[in-house]
Amino acid sequence: MGRFLNLRTLTLLGAAVAGLLTIILLTRYISLRESQISARLAQEGLTHVMLAKRDIPAARTITSVDVERTTWPKKALPKDAFHDLKSLKDRVAARKIIAGEPVLEGHLASKGSGTGLAAIIPKGKRAMAVRVNEIVGVAGFIKPGDLVDVIVTLEPDEETGIVTKTVLQRVPVIAVGQEISREGGKPKRVTAVTLMVNPADAEKLALASRNDIQLAMRNTLDSVRVSTVGATPVRLVGLPPKPEKEEEPPPEPKEEEGPPPVMVEVIRGATRGMEKF
């Protein structure tokens, strides 16, 4: 029985050693083969590059399913291209990468920036969600990557009345509902749109969201920022503005009154009388 166990142990040990040697030899062969291929490609003016095998949406962590390695002319290769899958480990797409496009450093979020939506938020920016409906969200046609203006309607005070004003312009949309990629052209009903703003604009957006807001979609090539005075019911129907109340002149200063007169009895000879002093 003991001899049988020893034989079985030796067999397993031999198989493990053989497997280890096979892995070592295979690794060396692959490394040597890679060196030979790289040398041949260098002679031919080619190099390896990682391409998107399929469309890679923004905020997706890149894996072997998303990319493939192919040869590329050195002269036409961008400087920040990737040459192997290992260099793409744990990297996140900062924007949509089209199938067949070389994966570049500029396409990816910074290393260590996390995963998902947080990874594609630039430094100094904030992602802020706005509640929308079919009207506010331009009937569902807003997509990630679009630019919008934020218009708010509110009543600052009774004297001013209702005012509608554009408070933010050219605000990037980074997510619609839970989608952060621009897929398809069909409108979708969502209840929230996430906008990219700086901290100061985030405060404005939070205040505007307490009132009635509207998102106005604009052409991404339109970079002109327009200054408006805002719309009021009076301006909307073309009524003349209310005349300003004339300020009443200040009252004239009153002369200061002295102390009340003092009545003194005066006697002149046989005459007696009262006089004021």
What does this structure look like?
There is one protein chain. This protein is α+β, with helices and mostly antiparallel strands and 277 residues long. The chain folds into three domains: 1-44; 45-120, Antifreeze-like/N-acetylneuraminic acid synthase C-terminal domain (Type Iii Antifreeze Protein Isoform Hplc 12, Alpha-Beta Complex); 124-237, no CATH class. It has three helices and nine strands. Strands 3-6-5-4-7 form a five-stranded antiparallel sheet, covered by helices on one side. Strands 1-2 form a two-stranded antiparallel ribbon. A two-stranded antiparallel sheet has the order 8-9. The chain is elongated and about 165 Å long. The protein starts with a helix and ends with a strand.
Task: Name its key features.
single chain, alpha+beta, Type Iii Antifreeze Protein Isoform Hplc 12, two-stranded antiparallel sheet, 3 helices, 21% helix, 24% strand
Please render the helix and strand layout as text:
Elements: H1 2-43, E1 46-52, E2 67-73, E3 126-131, E4 147-154, E5 163-176, E6 192-197, H2 199-208, E7 212-218, H3 233-237, E8 263-268, E9 271-276
Antiparallel strand pairs: 1-2, 3-6, 4-5, 4-7, 5-6, 8-9
Mean pLDDT: 80
User: Nearest-angstrom radius of gyration?
Assistant: 40 Å
- Biggest beta sheet attributes: 5 strands, antiparallel
Q: Could you give the distance between the termini? A: 147 Å
User: Largest sheet, order of strands side by side?
Assistant: 3-6-5-4-7
**SSE-based structural type:** alpha+beta
